[in-house]
Amino acid sequence: MTTTTISLERSAYELLRARKKPDESFSEELHRLLGSASPELKGFLDIVPPEDGPAIADAIETIRAQDFNEERMRALRGRPRNGHRA
Question: Fewer beta carbons under 10 A from the terminal one: N or C of the chain?
Fold first, then answer.
C-alpha cells in the first residue's frame, strides 16, 4: 500500500477525528465520507445477520446472471446476420 502525507489545518483534522469510527483508519473514514470506487463491506457485516448471508449471495448471483444475459442480448441484437446488418 502506498501512502502520501498531507497537511491539514488543525480544525479540519479535529472534524475528521470527531467523525472517525473507533475501528477505522483515517483512510477508511475518507473513503466512507467521500465515496469510493470499491467501498469496504466491513460496515455491512454489522447490520446483516450471518444467517442472511446465503440468501444475499444468491440474490447477488441472480442479479449478476440477469445483467450478463441482458448484455449478451444487447450484443446479439447489434451483431450482423450472415455478414449483413439487420
Answer: N
Residue 84 bridge partners (DSSP): 81
Enumerate helices (H) and strands (E) in the chain, giving the number of each.
4, 0
pTM of the shown model: 0.40
Give 85's DSSP letter: -
Q: pLDDT of 45-59, one tens digit each? A: 667 788 888 888 888
Q: Where are the domains of the chain?
A: 1-46, 48-86
pLDDT tens digits for range 13-29? 999 999 999 988 888 88
Q: Are 59 and 67 in contact (CB under 8 A)?
A: no
Best CA proximity match to 29, nearest among 3, 40, 38, 8: 40
Q: What is the DSSP letter of 80?
A: P
